Amino acid sequence: MKDALKRILSKRAIVITLVALLLLTGLNTYMILDDNRSSTNVVNYDFVLSQDGVIYKLRNMLTGYVTQQQESASSALNEALSEGKSVYLNTGTYTLKEDVEIINKLNAKLVSDGATINGNGHKIIVYGDNYTTSQYGFISGLTIINATIRVENSFATTITNTKFVNCSTGVEFINTHTWSEYNQIKDCQFFNDSEGIAFRTPIYSSYVNATGSYASSQIERCSFNIQDNGVGINVEHLAEFSDSQLQTVRFWMGEGGSNNQTALRVDGSMYQTLLFGVVFESFTPDTNDIFAIDLGETCNPAPVLDGGVSFLGNWTARVHNPFGVWVSGVGSVFERSVTIPVGINGQFGENKSIECRPLTIFSFKPKIDVSGSFSHNETVTVRVRIEYIDNVVSSSVSRTFTSNSVVWLTDDEMMRLLPSQSIMWAILVDAKVNVGSSDASVKVSGYGTAG
Nearest 10 degrees: CA dihedral of 33, 36, 39, 40? Predict the structure, then answer.
């Protein structure tokens, strides 16, 4: 009995000693109290930064050691992000006097639940020497005034639950080495910024492997209040915001004036980038260069307008398209014209396809135009087939020509190409002539709708 009592007292003494050590060192990895006596769970952070007037207090969560910085939070944040990779900002107002740099970090975090950063035009830079050294950065819960988050050569950066107010640019992506792909901007608000989100022209040099790719990225559940001379999302020349998604995004135009406002400007590529549930809303009765989408001369190609894309209110142009860039979307009409190589000696030439990727074909009716001098007994045969989304190729419909002709395939011929149920991916066409040489030419064209 006495031995059992001794063991219990010994264990209690150990517990009391540990608690005392924790209190003395400040090593409480689960909760820290800021000067306003509010508590935050910071178990996953290397540092916690608090603001008290013009004093910024930076606590090292491993050692419990607290350093103080006066007037500028930049030096405290740079110290923390140099020594560690995760910082929590307690509620307060943090003033930057220089850029904040997150350099070559994996799983870096800059997080708050309501802190405000007064940027004074400076930047929070997520930088990698290449995309392998800077991955899975995470920024959340901030109000950013007059500052920019710059993501450079980084993989899968996530920015969430953040407000960008009165910024020259809220978020910019730039490639100076390799690429910056798989980014996510979610649940963010952009108020009166000159530029909300920008995908920059890559910076090339003879010795740097920079690309234009910002592919496989997502912008979701974000809103943009656009001012005069402002743009919501800007895809610059040679920037490739491709294979990506804009989903449940809303642009408000005209509340901050009625001149030179653009929701989505594209001078680069938005190849296979889909717009779902995107709403463009203009409040102004006077429209002076008010564009929902502005397609520039170097745009190649435009984004795909998928389900739930709405244009509300008054516009100078819903889609400003002075250079005739092809605009595609569900239910859109497209026109295609393809020259078909003619094989000789009764052998079909190279197969050509008519398609509207990334969309599928809802309907298409080919027109066949055959011309040439046609020698005695010369015949040209044109074969049409359909490739379906499961890679199955239909049986063929063929037309034979002995003179110059322009014909459309009939409805009966098109029905012979269609199965009971499938999705059209491409129209396949090839041609042949029964002689050893010929000047015959074949062109297939027509209009269709995308599905």
Answer: -90
Centre a 10 Å sphere on the Cβ of residue 34 and count the other Cβ atoms it contains: 19
Helix (H) or strand (E) holding 59: strand 55-60
- Whether 249 contacts 223, CB under 8 Å: yes
CA distance 81 to 61: 13
Q: Is 16 helix (H, G, I), strand (E, B) or coil?
A: helix
Domain ranges of the chain: 30-328, 333-450
Query: CA nearest 407: which of 371, 363, 378, 373?
Result: 371
State how far the Cα of 82 lies from the Cα of 274, in Å rounded to an integer: 38
Which is nearest to 118 in space by CA: 94, 140, 142, 89?
Answer: 94
Please choose, from the candidates 152, 129, 127, 149, the residue with its C-alpha nearest in 3D space to the C-alpha of residue 140: 149
Q: Identify whether the C-beta of residue 253 lies closer than 8 Å to the C-beta of residue 291.
A: no
**What is the DSSP secondary-structure string of 109-173?**
EEEEEEEEEE-TT-EEEEE-SSTTTSB--EEEEEEEES-EEEEES-BS-EEES-EEES-S-SEEE
Using CA atoms, how far apart are residues 372 and 376, in angstroms rounded to an integer? 12
CA distance 253 to 227: 7
CATH code assigned to 30-328: 2.160.20
Q: Do residues 328 and 334 lie in contact, with contact meaning Cβ atoms separated by under 8 Å? A: yes
Instruction: List per-block mean pLDDT (blocks of 10 residues) for the chain, which spans 451 residues.
Output: 50 46 40 41 85 92 91 92 96 96 98 96 97 98 98 98 98 96 98 97 80 97 96 98 97 87 97 94 89 96 88 93 83 82 95 81 89 94 91 91 94 82 86 94 87 64
Question: Phi and psi dihedrals of 425, rounded to 5?
Answer: -105, -40
What's the confidence (pLDDT) of residue 8?
Answer: 45
Rg (CA), the chain: 31
Cα torsion 205, 209, 212, 218: sign: negative
The pTM for the full model equals: 0.77
30-328 and 333-450 share one fold: no
Return the CATH fold of 333-450. Hypothetical Protein Tm1070; Chain: A (2.60.290)
Tokens describing residue 422: 């499938």
Which of these, 48, 71, 51, 72, lies nearest to 60 by C-alpha position? 48
* pLDDT in the model for residue 128: 97
